[in-house]
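testing teh design pipeline on a random one, pls ignore if ur not involved
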């Protein structure tokens, strides 16, 4: 029981020291500390690597979706031709032989 009591006492002391250290931090230091804690999650190496890869892919996808796609002149010409032909088809449907 003595070992357990000592272990619990040491854990409580460490928790109090940690709380005091966090309370004494500036907002900038606390933000850096929190960022470090988020980036150094516990767990198996493979799981951490997979999560890191997922974050990287998600960031790349978000960047790709955020940038507007450049439309070339050929695409613009084809879209205009499609619109013209659709308008022509609509006009033909309106004025067919049945009235």
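output:
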């Amino acid at each position: 029981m003595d070992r357990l009591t000592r272990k619990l006492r040491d854990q409580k002391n460490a928790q109090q020291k940690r709380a005091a250290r966090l309370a004494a931090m500036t907002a900038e230091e606390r933000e850096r500390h929190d960022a470090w804690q988020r980036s150094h999650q516990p767990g198996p190496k493979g799981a951490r690597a997979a999560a890191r890869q997922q974050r990287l892919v998600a960031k790349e996808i978000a960047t790709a979706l955020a940038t507007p796609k450049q439309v070339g002149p050929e695409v613009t010409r084809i879209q205009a031709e499609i619109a013209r032909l659709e308008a022509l088809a609509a006009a033909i449907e309106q004025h067919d032989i049945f009235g």
